[in-house]
Batch of 3 targets.
Target 1
Amino acid sequence: MFGAILAFSLLLGGGCSRTSPAARKEAYLESGKRYFQNGRYREAAIQFQNAIQIDGSIAEAHHQLAQCYVREQLWPDAYRELLRTIELDPKNMSAQLDLAEFLFRGRQFKAARENAALLFKENPDDVKALLLLATSDGELGDLKTAIQEAKQAVQIAGGGPTAHLTLGLLLEKAQQFKAGEQSLLKAVALDSRFLPARLGLGSFYERRRNFAAAEDQYRSAIELDRVNPVAWYALASLYVVEGNRDRAEQVLLEAKKSMPGDPNAYRLLGDFYLAGAESGKALSEFASLSEQHPDDLVVKRRYIQILIQDKQFDRALKANEEILWRNSHDPVALIAKGEVLNMQQKPGEAIPILERAVTGNPEIPEGHLLLGLSYFATGNLTRAEKELREAAELKPSMVDAQRNLASLALRKGDIRLLERSASAWVNYSPLEPKAYLLRGTARLKRGDIQEAQADLLNAIKLDSKNATAYARLGDLRLSEKRFAEAENLYEKALSCDPGEGEALQGLIGLFLAKKQAEKATARAEAQVAKVPGKSVFHFLLGEALLADHKTLEARTSLQRAVDLDPANPAALLLLAQVQEAVGQPDAAASTYERLIRLNAQDVRPYIGLGVLEERRGDWQKAEQLYQKALKIQADQASAANNLGYLLLEHGGDLNYALSLAQIARGGMPDSPNVADTLGWAYCKMGLYDSAISLLQEAVKKSPQNPTFHYHLGVVYRKVDKMALARTSFERALQLSPASQRAQEISQALEELSRAQ
């Protein structure tokens, strides 16, 4: 409702030949008042701005400027000037009342009520304040109090039409229809030329579906004042409700002819086309209006927005530059430019422009939203989240902010943010299936099965073909080990959308968990045949083939996945592992390096390549790769474990190696490799008791690993448990008789024999 628009800040070069600032200030004030009385609000605003530049402490000038902005629908500017007026002159009751009415129009009913209550307390005879108090209470749901206050206003006003009008509408809201009609009729009877009463009575009849009576009142209002746009608009709206858009269009055409110079009248037809989704007519109408009224910023902005929606970006930018040429700081024009650049896939160019807009006007939620989207598109998730949160805080009902916050949270894996933003989305769009889907996803991830199920079922109820919702419900059933139901839901998802990747992923995961690799392979092959161009399907087929011990076929499928999507990180990572497994270490290294180039912040390819280099004997390069991974993520358990072990094996800093092993233990407490590394570190430092328990754990969890047996044998020997040491060494040699360490183990066994 409230678009943020800055008025012109052009200074008039002449207009006053006197040199005294006080005289020029008074001249500007008087000139502004004359313009205002003649309905020339733009020119009036310029004059009041000129007066304020001479003396910024003139409360009257700020108040007059606020009223200009209200007439021009420049709501944020009007609000700012009203606040400044009251700051300079707290006893200005007129400004206080304007502020209260402004808050009411902005649906800030609680704040409006508080202001109105204070004003009425100051002046118990102030009918306007009392009526505003009544309408605020009505909007807040306290109809009983609101009606009492309106009746009190009727008494104070001596039966004035405004009080009867307010009372009638409140009685209608309380479903006291007969009493409400009588009060509205009384308002008309008291002053038959009072248009708000006629229009109020007409709207009452319209809501009661008495269209003939409503039309009579609206036509009477037009006859009383043919240059009142509100009456024409009410009649046109009635015809729209009746389903007669042609008659509505004719009414608005007539209104435009009757009031060619009134912006509130000549804009009506274009707005009618916009509301009816007649974009072609709307574009033509606002293009014409923009030429006829080049100084009407409201028209210009609507024209620009229609051009943007129609993807006529060059024309939109050209029209927008006309506004920025007059005022380079105009926030709405800056935001519009940023919006176009985002739509043109140029978020990097949009960011500095949108930053200018929100820095100067931080109260505009649309600016923060678009800036957040720009940062999101460039991968700066931290700034994106900050801006999207700001937009949602400024305007909680802004669904776009909540929706994109939810998407960002999903990408980050921030379950709390996902649930919070999706919940807000549900509140403001209760019929949007994706909102329930995302909230259900969040609740499923944090283990709230009952609430997650309710959300997912709601998503399906609102959209019976929602494949992703069926897939997530399949995940839920899988978590409950209800395998048959999960399988049916995954299949249902794929029947709704053969390209639903999450559903096939769930199916393949289910089959592999049940050790049904052949079934997984067959199912993946069937879906690949249906949708051959989907990278993720070839990736899932590669996973199934690997589980089915068909490594070469898996490599082919994974290569196809990468060909279809060269930036598929999961496919590239698995392809590198398979390439190494089939004896192609150079190809594997090249694939890992490609992954690093695609995303230098992903630690996985550094670790994978490090392991590969270890196997190839280049432990120094492996060490560097693990260090890079830890620089990106200091608590990465695998990198910490592997680097710690290399330091232990190659004479590195023992204290650092121990700290790395402890980090790894914290991240992977059940890993036998980590238990071995930490135990070996304790052994190197002479802490044998601690070492023994960890190495025993490693051997128990992985009894076929010769290195674990060797390390345990070394520690047993250190604590003089020679029989146990011999058993461990013999087992290590038995498991790997041709290893590099075989000679060292044999020597240790000989030494044990001699010692006996």
Note: The chain has a mean pLDDT of 88.
Target 2
Amino acid sequence: MTRRRLLRGGLAAGLGVAVAASVALAVLPASAASTLYEAEAGTISQGTVDANHAGFTGAGFVNYANVAGGYFEITVDVPVAGGTALVFRYANSSGGNRPTDVTVDGNPVGTIPFANTGSWTTWQTASVSTTLTAGSHTVRATATGSGGGPNVDSVTVTDGSVPPAFDYTVAVADSEESRHSPSTIGGWGYTQGLFLWGTYLLYQRTHDVKYLNFMRTWANRFISADGTISNSFTNLDSMNSANVALALNREFPTDTRYKKVADKVRNRLDSYTRTSDGGWWHSTSGSRDNQLWGDGVFMVLPFLVRYGQQINNRTFPFDGENAYGEAVKQLKIYYGHLRNPANELLKHAYDGSPAGQKASWANPTTGQAPETWCRAEGWFSMTLIEVLEIIPLDQPGRADLITMLQRLVPAFARYQDPASGRWWQVVDKGTVSGNWTETSCSSMYTYVISRSVERGYVDASYQTVADKGYAGVLARVRQNGSRYDVTTISEGTNVGNLAYYFGRAQNTNDLHGLGAFLIMNEQLRRFT
């Protein structure tokens, strides 16, 4: 990398800037040609050059005044026409984002949120990418909020001649968001909520606002400006997309519509129908009375603990449990009814109706469904991880959730297909003709095993199981022109017998699989 002092100069006339741009955390390939420009040598409006926070390079850093409209600008040299990344080294300990609009030669190329870095001496990088001609260009970063911009130490310009390491999360998310706009990707459904939560994890890593804008545009289809949403939330599936509302409330706290939707879902749970031992029914519509499905916990419990952490951890009138305690309670109830002690896997569902009133699929004695459907067990195990990430270390019942993982993860390892590294549609029937390895649950199990290893819930040797699962899932990704497809994903599934599960459609780019893939890939690319 070449280090240069900033060159002052006028605008370079007639130099083209592409309209499309993306914002990302900068991970520069070691061999990329790049030049660093010290920000403090630039032209500054409504800001100062300071040197009171350690860790900067050069003579100091740009400290924006706490007003909107302040900026600094630099003139940079681009040696090779084509893709160019402008990498800002910055610090922000204001408690929130300090967004700036970035322009090149007066043309907008993107907005960088400049998220909180934790302290004024913790320096991180964020970048905006665009396409430039070779030659001189003027880069300006203008604060958009009343808090001004972050402290900026330097700007590094890369010529884009060496591509970064392949990012599967970006490839899959971008492919789906090119196939479908926010208005065509589907309604207020749990699969949309799953995919958009994976998209939010990608936004949190890259700070690319196009992902956040996609989420917000989708959500605003259903949520009016005053926070009204036309949904009675009569089943757990309908609640999963409330996680999107929580994410948007975090990112746009002054837009109260998202909190109102989250409040509505949380309030609905106060009176939501329960089994005799307190488990929330999968649906209150009548056809699934007294039924607990392994799917259901993921639809509601990650939302519940996030709501408790982010907005209000109030107690339930039914049992006096707060959000954390209720999540633990629900997982213990569901696990107790779904567990198969013979192999430590979970049956798909349980019917707690009185004798003679149980569903046709239910064992008349145990109430359990006949089979272990892989995705239902994936939903349940992912819920364990998400709840454990938030509840306190001293939360009563926390150890019970870890014990569940310590039973499930070895069972996952035992039933992993040794040839592909994936898991079977019916997990424990891999040798039965007609069974097939399914991509969404394989993504889920891979994620759960890797995070369990990372957190120390299970022995580190299980990471080899996750690595094999990861390779198996990546083998299901296919390049299709400029897009990437994820194949062999089970369609949405009710409770049934062996032939029913075997006969489910094997879809490509089904949101069940895309959402699980994004969550898995963010874990594996970070931890391994």
Note: Confidence is low (pLDDT under 50) at residues 2-32.
Target 3
Amino acid sequence: MQKFRLRHFLYYVVTFLGIFFLGGRIGKFGKESSFFQGFLIQKPIIRIGLGVNLTDFIIRSSAGMKVYEVKANYKLVSDDAREVHIRARKERLTEKFLLQVAKTKGREEAELIAQNLRTKIENRIYIAEDTENCLEGIFQVKVGDFLSRQDALNFIKNLNQIGIKEAWILKEEIPKDKSKPLTILINDELKSLSQDTVLYFIPSHEQSFLSFNSQNYRGIFVLRTSPKGIVLINILNLEDYLKGVVPSELSPYNFDQLEAQKAQAVAARAYAIKNLGLYEDLGFDLFDTPKSQFYKGMNSENPLSTKAVEETKGEVTLYNGELINALYTSSCGGKTENVENVFGGKSLPYLKSAECFFEKQNEWMLKSNMPLLPIQMGGKDISQGIAFLISLGVIPKETNPSFYRERASFEDAESWVKNSLILLNKKNEKFAPENSALNFITLAELIICAFEWQDRVENLALSEEVESLMKDFPELMAVQRKAIAYLVQEGIFPTSKDIGNEERFVTKAELAFCLTQVISKCRDFLHQGIFRGYNNNKIEVGEEYERKHFVLSPDVFLLRNIEGEYSFASQVSLLGGEEVKWLERNGEVRLLEVIYSSDKDIFGQTSKLLHWQVRKSRQELEAGIDEYYPIGKLKDIIVQQRGDSNRVRELLIVGTESQVVVSGLNIRWALGLKDTLFDIDREYDEEGNVTYFTFSGKGWGHGVGLCQVGAFRMAQAGADYQEILKKYYQGIKISKIY
């Protein structure tokens, strides 16, 4: 094992073993022995906060659990409980506010700033290491305490007078009343517990699991008090924890490349170990939210991500023999950013800006011999339905729009209806219609008889609705009126003023539309998933975590779906990862729909993670900014500096009362945006005042470290997980530490 700074991690494991159950005797912690009462948790272990300041909740077990009350010693409260209902009076918290006046790269610089401030103001000034962003060596200089946000806002004006132009308001919660009765209901018995009680919930069997908020968890639960109220903690093996983190952070359904999942597993493991004890004041290491790492226990586990965790067991990322802070982001929008430009503090050599493009990116061109021009019916394009019926073999392989403008014969209707019955595996030996002129009256009878919908018409077509829909056709027989009204009501017949006119003939387009609606109501033939590749005339798609291969018909219909607007194409270019719908018949894909949003990313692919646009009124922005800075009425927002990725590094916010320069991640919070990679457009009123700001941006997250979308792209192109990690974390080594 390489030497690096894991002393706090090893100390934590040893300390935990020494104090577990507050003096209760337990066996050795490891594979060779049970953890407690026969329940095994292998080391290393981690403590995850599942809830803070809880009041009323239920803990359940899949096969029974033991409940222990721990004080100076521990005692068994229940030997085999299936459900425990816990009630506690909520902590009555009051808020206090502070002002962050500086952020430094070391304590010494912070001390100098604080010392200088003490000569100018009388308020309390203190220094604290910034643990919120999980970066070592960054210190905050704070002024406080203030009892209200307005007090803090008012004091910023005093700071401005002594030359401090940027002050960030921080809010902290403090307990007002520490007395908190705790009651638990176990096996219909209500028990009252004291304030300092700690409860342990341990599955009765090794394969059993506990549940909280409809989520299932490995390991055990600990309930205890904290400065912020009742806390529920999940204690489990670190690798088991990662099995719930990796699929939550990088969906194996949308990002089903093993090497990308493995890169995520190594990054998440390094992050977890690096930040053990981060929330020690609350009794746990990390939150289960994106504030730390998103973790939803066993419910989110998936075979692909579990395989990624197991195949990288114990592997972490190191720089100069030390664990790195393995930050990662959903999408970097094409280029990651230097860590200091987002989080402040010192530069880190392994978290430098990196281009998010892989030279070996695959691209597949799919072609079709079946272009389809728009086919109109009552001013509506129904060509998608026509392609649907052709692909299913219901109607002839005819794509000329003039064909569908022709009058449909009774023979056409009978033949197409029979093809529909065969497709739907419906047997109707009684269906033998007599030839007659085809209008909507005879077509209604044809459809009702073929699909044996007589009972539907009788029971679902209410007399009041029939009268309303068919009031213009009193001459029709009651059974005819009822049949047509039902089909119109179900959306199978188009709405038309002359639909009950015996002289009104049916076009082939109308006949096709009706059968499309009938078939769609009986069965959904379209599959939906993710396009993965194309080779040897076969496409590969992912559907519900399965990889499937289909021959691509040379007569396939190719559709582009851009924001719900369809168009047929003779060819489409795909990179993998696109959302697609397809229709398969006899092992061949006959119709393929590629779903796009309105913008395209640097790979030519669309993703809401990559492109976004937000339009906000001046008043809306003003309210958000006022949470942190007292600027008065917002006048303008001006970009001052950009980082290597073109993310906004410094932003000038101008108000009627003051102006402030906001930097790094604070920009995102103040403006309420998804990322800091954006441009600004403005709308003005007649007097020249800005009324709206439109932010057009790319990326989702902070933009530092591993880009999850980029990692997936690299894996698609053939990169392994080590290559992916070394691209986003420069100069690192990947080592196995246990």
Note: Residues 258-274 form the longest helix (17 residues).
